[in-house]
Predict the structure.
Amino acid sequence: MIEKSLAEIAKMAGGLNDVRKFADVKVKGVSIDTRKMEAGNLFVPIKGSRTDGHNFVADVIENRGASAALWQKDVPSPPEHLPVIIVEDTTTALQELARSYRNSLEIKVVGITGSNGKTTTKDITSNLLAQKYKVQKTEGNFNNHLGLPLTLLRLREDTEVAVLEMGMSSKGEIEFLSKLGRPDAVIITNIGESHLLDLGSREAIADAKLEIISGLKENGIIIYHGDEPLLRDRLQNYHGKGILKTFGASHDNDLYPVAIEPWENGNQFTTNLGSATFFLPVLGNHNILNALAAMLAAEFLGVSFEQMNDGFASLKLTKMRMELSEGVHGEKIINDAYNASPTSMNAAIDLVANLTGYRRKILVLGDMLELGPLEQEYHYKVGISLDASKVDYVFTYGELSESIARGAKEMLGENRVFAFHDKQKLSEELKKYVTNETIVLVKASRGMALEEVVKALQ
């Protein structure tokens, strides 16, 4: 992580005041959260809609171990007796500090964006690259205008490759993040329906995701889902500074699966490039596509296909991404409750529908958020697409998911579909239907907190 003197930090962050009195104070790491403060941290107070971090500056320095803090110029009464750097805007200063630090590092960067699969692809890419390099990756969901700068500032000076997830909620955000991270390789996993509420169309989402190219270094690589027309059409006349590589299910791609064999805890597969057999310990064919994207990035940075199985074998995904566990009655539970869109939900349902070895298959589905004016229709389509011969019961949670239940009842019948607005009642009813021969999928947007249902079964 960044380790500098206060004088150096002030210069990098655009400090406005005279800090000579505290010039030799040592800063180690940066935090914007008083609850996660570590000794030696620089505290960056952010002015929020409900709280203002400036109210905690004195406390974190005097009592919680912070060595210094930034202070926004328009906030009155900066504590002059403490090591404080005054800046025009603390968010901008944090970003500029990260930019300066990143530019000082001799490091390769992989940037990853997409509507679905960013975090899984990040995890796989990191593991593959770790077969040759010292790697750090975005932790949790630190992938926005605050999270990515914090991720950069956590990079160790001996780190050789950083794998950075780049998220967005509106146009222009990924361009900013890409120019901040300056990637050598970029991956666009897919274009789905997430952020339709903000951007209005899948075409606009595709344009926003393609902003990741803007910060690409000379002779870098652009890896994208070649089965997606919105990406393929936009890149067919690309004449920029990067090379193009595609992955996908169709044989038109540079890398595609030739054979897939599902196992209880993952998939074995081969690709069109060579005869090697790979085992990905993650459920779902869609995750093989994420693995293919990661393989192209790793190969570009010098990891051979022969090394990749070792990277797959040690893979541990971020929590609540196709996380397989067991309930108290021996039922298997797939916890995919971190996020959801129609694309990812249909992929997860398709996975469960085609799993073998279970006598009962149950879907627990919650609201998919940020889908815009057609949200009810998207939910209904999930329900109406279910195959009654492959799914036994459906439990829904939330107002929007009533539309899933409505569609599901048309396919499965009234007595196999249950709609709830209370998670505890849902969990109590669900327990009546699980046995040691049951597989349960739990899937919803993050705001629905459906992991509480998973905990109730365990």
Residues 3-92 form a domain with the Udp-n-acetylmuramoylalanyl-d-glutamate--2,6- Diaminopimelate Ligase; Chain: A, domain 1 fold (CATH 3.40.1390.10). The chain has a mean pLDDT of 94. Residues 222 and 244 are 5 Å apart (CA to CA). DSSP finds 16 helices and 21 strands in the chain.
